[in-house]
Amino acid sequence: MRSFKDHNPITVFIFYAFAIIPAMFCTNPVIMCISLVGAVAFRLAKDGSGAVRKMLPYFAFPVLGVIINPLFNHKGVTTLFILNNNPITLEAVLFGLTLGIMICSTVIWFSSFNSIMTTDKLLYIFGSVSPKIALILSMTLRYIPLYGQQIKKVRQAQTVTGLYKEDNVIDKIRGGLRIMSVMVSWALENGIITADSMSARGYGAGRRSRFAIFSWRKADIVLAVLCVLLGGTAAACIGIGRLAYTWYPEIVTPGASLPAVLCYAAYAVLCAIPTVLQIREEARWRSLQSEI
Where are the domains of the chain? Predict the structure, then answer.
């Protein structure tokens, strides 16, 4: 038994695709809540109590949705109160809450995706499909932390030379423009160096070969098939429109039909897969440690 992150990257990518896409394109609040619970449970199982502090800012999205959506959207028949001659409706509040939950769950899923799907895994996934896209993606992901480190170095160097003495907006804007100018020059120079290095090493001179440390195992195939079946079932039920909520002018629920129950069950099992695998792996590890 392996933890979720140790499975084949293609299997992990398939899971995230089926877990995130329904939550992004379906306004059903039950689907949103299942997605949020699954994302939070996996982060807690993977990162422990330290994940709570990291996830707390994400829960500002539902709060903002409840506040912002009713201020700009006054549709709905259930008026809660009047604010500046504009009705604040229950439908707008609940719809804003649902959108906030959707954004919150999606961000948490992508945060775990970012920690699991490293550059080498993404290169492995897209390398066989399009080596050029895989190379561009790998280089882009590599330059993101490099830019952050370089900006910090430039700011520290300018501070040592006596800049940023005046703590005001004008001084900060000038400092930001200086850093931008330095970063543009650094990026162009670094791009030329990278291109020359790739050319000197024979990039593009012949057919590319690829090497990967990842392999397919029986558990990877079983997990991939399970994710496709569960995710496909949920996507099919959503696609036929049997789970669609009508929010305006009044809330109309789809009801507890067989496709709805099937979709909820399939999507809940799908979102629980990484948490179950993570908990089983940690329990097995603790059991082995106790036997030493």
Answer: 4-123+220-290, 139-200
